[in-house]
Amino acid sequence: MKRQVRRRPGAKPIVLAALGAGLAGLVLLAAGQGGLLRLLLRPPAAVAGGTPVMPPDSSPERGRVLYAENCASCHGARLEGQEDWQTPGPDGILPAPPHDAAGHTWHHGDGILFDYVSLGGARALEKRGIAGFRSGMPGFSAALTEQEIWDILAYIKSNWPERIRALQASQTEAERERGD
Length: 180
What we know:
By secondary structure, the chain is mostly helical.
């Protein structure tokens, strides 16, 4: 036998008002947290089969400014990276690599590059099944919008010779085909 639930008259408006008040409180709390509000309100990344895709309006010019503000202190003003970037320091963490043609950034597709900047090195690799990797690369998802991350990547790519851009594009396509 089914039990009948009795509702008080006017209960629905009370529930809706409570939900609305809770949502308003969350928005106000987020506003006080600065980056949290940006994180909650930003649009989702374009995705192809689960792989982030660089939007066509990504701007190397905007990326140049953002790179100088957020990346150059570790990766160098000219994308040159830190000395001995392939040798771990005493803490076991690799120094920041170069993003110019001499580095290995172009060996990776757009999806992992985006995740590396957004999530940080360790979390980007964990997402791909590599656990326990110690990385000095922090995640920037609370400080940068997805579009800003794409602009930075567009700036980095704009410094590569055409041959390297083509090789990196093929890595991006292979990554999409695998669903990485």
